[in-house]
């Protein structure tokens, strides 16, 4: 699949793929409240598996929590299934370069 496609998927039907992060429930209470109130704002990234289902590459926490709070659908970006080395590298880069907001940004917001 060379073109990126955006769809809305039922989070309870999306398979949770391999992830370098093992704690998908960190900050779960506040995160769940936010997703329940506002929905999933940033699309998760998925690929189609051989059974015709979808597997999460990026956004496992968003998907798990969205299913837990009962959202009917979430935004998803469908991409080609990456090789294992690319999957690991992308997940490392995504998580290593994520920075928390500083107090002045929170107050300003």
Brief description of this entry?
The chain is of the alpha/beta class and 109 residues long.
Description:
- The chain has a five-stranded mixed β-sheet with strand order 1-5-3-4-2, with helices on one face.
- The longest helix is centred in the last third of the chain and has 13 residues, at 84-96.
- Strand 3 and strand 4 (54-58) form a beta hairpin.
- It is globular.
- The mean pLDDT is 84.
- 36% of the residues lie in helices and 20% in strands.
- The chain is of the alpha/beta class.
- It starts with a strand and ends with a helix.
- Helix 1 (28-38) packs across helix 2.
- The protein has four helices and five strands.
- It has helices at 28-38, 60-68, 84-96, 103-108, and strands spanning 5-9, 15-16, 44-48, 54-58, 74-78.
Keywords:
globular; alpha/beta; 20% strand; 109 residues; 4 helices; five-stranded mixed beta sheet
Largest sheet features: 5 strands, mixed
How are helices and strands ordered from N to C? EEHEEHEHH
Quick one: overall form?
Answer: globular
**Estimated radius of gyration:** 15 Å
Helix content: 25-40%
- Whole-number average pLDDT? 84
Number of helices: 4
Please state roughly what percent of the residues sit in beta strands, choosing from under 5%, 5-15%, 15-25%, 25-35%, 35-45% or over 45%.
15-25%
The residue ranges in which pLDDT falls below 50 over 5 or more consecutive positions are none
Largest beta sheet: strand ordering: 1-5-3-4-2
Number of strands: 5
Distance between the termini: 39 Å
Provide the structure class.
alpha/beta
